[in-house]
Amino acid sequence: TCEWDATKIHSWLPMYEETIQCIKPSQSGALDRIIWLDLAGMWTDLCSITCLPPSGITAGSLAPWILWSIWKERNKFVFESTSASAESTLSKAIGLAREWISEPKMKPSPSGLVEPIHHPPPPNTVTIRSDAAWKGQGNRAGVGCFRIAPSGTRSISSCIPFVASTIMAEGLALLEAVKMGICDNLKAIRF
Asked: InterPro entries attached here (predicted)?
């Protein structure tokens, strides 16, 4: 069912019941795996490591760029069946870090907010907007989606228990938007 067996969790691990249920199982039935488990404790140390001069990175940390490049290459491997060497991945990470350092930063408007650039959707594209609200006390989220199309509008909303953070709530709202697009058999969607 892609849902937790709440009865077994309550019987076997009652002290971790809420924590476990805040982990959202795979919707596609993927096997459970432990990934990046030690990373959270090492993040501060990773980001404080000084880069050596040959990298050309004089400010900031290279660690986030390496992890980002590994993630991008992993996705290319999974979804496009392409692979890159460790050296190539590291070179891309260094290039991204250098680009970030040299790129002029956007200046905020007088109100202090950065104005977004609006790109109109391609023709025959349906827009689905999603949003979420999260209540830390009780770990509950409200999620909703709104489809805007020439054929009409449609909206859905729901309350989801056991949501651990705002970013998870937003991700679950976007997941509902994707499901809406699949259910409506849409081929060109902007989220």
From this structure: RNase_H-like_EbsB-rel
